[in-house]
Amino acid sequence: MEHMEHIHPFPGGNEPAAIAVQGVSHSYGRHPALKDVNFSVPAGSIAMLLGLNGAGKTTLFSLISRLFGIQKGSISIFNHDIAREPREALRRIGIVFQSRTLDLDLSVKQNLAYHAALHGLSHAQTKQRIEAVLHTVEMETRLKDKVRSLSGGQMRRVEIARALLHEPRLLLLDEPTVGLDIQSRASIVAFIRKLVANQGISVLWATHLIDEVDVRDHGVMLRQGVVTAAGPLQAIMTHAGTLTVEEAFNKLCRKVELQEVLSHEP
Amino acid sequence: MSLDTPQVTTPEPLSRPYGIGPYLTCMKGILIREALRFLHQRERFISSLVRPLVWLFIFAAGFRQVLGVSIVPPYKTYVLYEIYITPGLAGMILLFSGMQSSLSMVYDREMGNMRTLLISPFPRWYLLVSKLLAGVAVSLAQVYVFLGIAWFWGVKPPPFGYIAVLPALLLAGLMLGSLGMLLSSIIKQLENFAGIMNFVIFPMYFASSALYPLWRIQEASPLLYKICQANPFTYAVELIRFAFYGQLHMTSLLVVAGCTIVFLTGAVIAYDPSRGLMSRKPAAGGNS
């Protein structure tokens, strides 16, 4: 499998990219997790970060959200370098992590109020935004309920509401539908797409579930820490010579070792 | 989920990590969260009180006749053993609380809750200091509840001592909380914390002046005496003991303040994304 160049590395026009990742490498000790990663996400678009488990998606999210320091390369959020201007970059980001990060012993309202405080929102803003985001995710009736009493899908909705609380311009979703039933998954996917359409928010969505992908999305194909393709999915499919996203995913994201084994099979 | 009514897009996020108001809001939010967590964990509150009370009611009563305490500053007369160990027991609450707070940081990091704190746009050092202060505030409340119960047991320092001891308790709490925070950055998994409890909490507590005056320890073992003198917890206890009587023990103040700066600086460096230890291991819960 040849290494693919970036089909659409940076957006055109004057509007800055929602995310611009340039030459980023990261390793855990001697084990490299990301190797010279380059891609960008145009403002107001959905970019699907596609890769198998262990491809480096969560590491990349940890770097974008500054949980980890950048060892090599740079990441900018709307032209604000995450290492040099972390405050400006982080205030523009809303994140839903792969693992649940709500406090189970606190109520929905208390969890959201805590997040609002972490962004310096005033009391009035907090009250107004909690009402607004819970209405948006149809969870306003569960305001005072303990998070522990919610279902998995409802917890995810609250986490999405929390990520939207401070009105970020970029939403990072790290496999937000993992472990949910089909109905909850479909609901969350539809909601995020409406959010992009109505509010012009930008989304970087890490997943390995192909049915969540729309061919009109942008894509970043990640395989063993290497970006094998990045750009509009239509262009990626054309370049890869495939007819579906799934085929492109199998071609560009599957592990090399497995592919080599398969290619030698009679 | 509904998004039928198009909402107005704001060009700038609401998040405002600037100015004193948002900074105070952030700290208040962390403080409230810590207090709520504490209130929801009633068993934690009860155990934090039972531990020193058992020492006061049983250990001190039993050893009163065995462990005589001569007149040592700040005491001007012979005092009952219960009175002697009360500052040490207040220190014990701060010590356990500081370590428990770091336990919760390890738990939060494993469960992912810690990430919600660390992705805040406020400076990392400010978030950690806020969390530290919130933990200390909760432990101070525990100390005062303990002192209230001890009053009925006959441990009655001068009334102004209850106010005078507050800064000493705060500083000692900050030192022990900072140490806990530093340890939490080193511990990879929750299971490893039991070892830290055994290797840090118990040696710190027993090799100090919390239970016995240092002159008694010196008589028994010069080596142990030197260990006690090198133990920052000894100075935290002495700072509290003197403050109960409206006195300032300068050496203790300098040692506790110095250790607080060293431990807190270490914790801030350890949690710094560009210099710290966190990025050297994969995130918990993530695939890679």
Automatic annotation (TrEMBL), chain B:
It comes from Nitratireductor aestuarii. The keyword Oxidoreductase does not apply. The keyword Oxidoreductase does not apply. Keywords: Cell membrane, Membrane, Transmembrane, Transmembrane helix, Transport. One of its GO terms (molecular function) is ABC-type transporter activity. Its main location: membrane. This is Transport permease protein. It is found in: Cell inner membrane; Membrane.
